[in-house]
Amino acid sequence: MSTIDLRHMRHALALAEERNFGRAAGRIGISQPTLSRSIQTLEEGVGAPLFDRFPREVVPTEVGRVFLGRAASIVAEADDLEREMAAQLGLESGVLRVAVGPYVAAVLLGAILGRFSDRHPALRIEVAEVPGARMREVVGSGEVEVLVGEQALFRGEGEFVCEPLRPRLGEYVCRAGHPLLERDSIQVQDILSYPLAMTDISPGAWVRILGEEAGEFDPVMLADRAWKVRCQSLVAIAELVASSDAIGMFSRGMIRRELEEGSLAVIPLEGTRPSADWAIIRRRGRTLSPAAEAFIEAVREADDEVSAD
């Protein structure tokens, strides 16, 4: 067996979790051919296939399962060592791994990274954009030091520390010429009668989004069944809404160009506007690296300066 690269181990672990080359490549931010070559190189180094390739999925072989179990421990220890060394070295070197939700990525991430990179040019930062369903996992497992995302997913969880950010108002949005825009009065029930295109939204988030109307709906049912299209790409959702009768949720800043061009329109809702309830989230008891502390400070500043509407 030849020397095994940690990078190849990370690629194999991502592929084992996603069971699909395309999804795994997108998650770790490389092209699918690059991931395929990485896995092939790893298998050549090990001397055996680690995955069986089927038309619809990729499944670890018996050898692969043994390898992946050890690789997960090795990668976790390597990450711990890297964090400890970065903490010892202060802010002069190292890699910081953080995560954000899709809406945070669209509204705040650019401002956060601009501040962080300007102040700490020697540091590298790896940002994972994660859906709500994975947020607790990536923070709890130590995959990232800090997450900026939906606070409702962590409420009542003693394992995590949440520092709330400013509330941010959003809008229900549709295409120009949508039948809803012809009505004199539009209620939440009217919006929910059309297909919804959205990222994954938790029951707790639905309660907040609906506000005073929340008592008229089952938030668990809404989280499970209200959506017609669930997608983590807000750009794709905006394009879908502009070309169909689907309804989306955005802040005005996220779709300013489309509103000015007239391809999208804000629905004049009579009732509570949807809102975001974001927080800086970390695992309780974990000592943050100086880089993570600097990132949190950049988040606070960006949150103060970026418009909340």
How would you describe this protein?
This protein is an alpha/beta fold. The chain has three domains: 6-82, Winged helix-like DNA-binding domain superfamily/Winged helix DNA-binding domain (Arc Repressor Mutant, subunit A, Orthogonal Bundle), CATH 1.10.10; 90-167 and 277-305, 3-Layer(aba) Sandwich (D-Maltodextrin-Binding Protein, domain 2), CATH 3.40.190.10; 168-276, Periplasmic binding protein-like II (D-Maltodextrin-Binding Protein, domain 2), CATH 3.40.190.10. The chain has 13 helices and 14 strands. It has helices at residues 6-18, 21-28, 32-46, 62-89, 102-107, 109-119, 132-140, 188-192, 203-210, 219-225, 234-242, 256-261, 290-305, and strands at residues 51-53, 58-60, 95-100, 124-129, 146-150, 160-164, 168-169, 171-175, 196-198, 227-230, 248-250, 264-266, 275-276, 278-283. The strands form five sheets. It has a five-stranded mixed β-sheet with strand order 4-3-5-14-6, sandwiched between helices. A three-stranded antiparallel β-sheet has the order 11-8-12. Strands 1-2 form a two-stranded antiparallel ribbon. Strand 1 and strand 2 form a beta hairpin. The longest helix is centred in the N-terminal third of the chain and has 28 residues, at 62-89.
- In the CATH classification, which architecture of the largest domain applies? 3-Layer(aba) Sandwich
Element order: H for helix, E for strand: HHHEEHEHHEHEEEEHEHHEHEHEEEH
CATH class of the largest domain: Alpha Beta
* N/C terminus separation: 56 Å
Main sheet record: 5 strands, mixed
% residues in beta strands: 15-25%
**Largest sheet strand order:** 4-3-5-14-6
Mean of all residue-level pLDDT scores: 86
Within CATH, the superfamily of the largest domain carries the name Periplasmic binding protein-like II
Number of helices: 13
Extract low-pLDDT stretches.
Answer: none
Coarse structural class: alpha/beta
- In helices, the fraction of residues equals 40-55%
Number of strands: 14
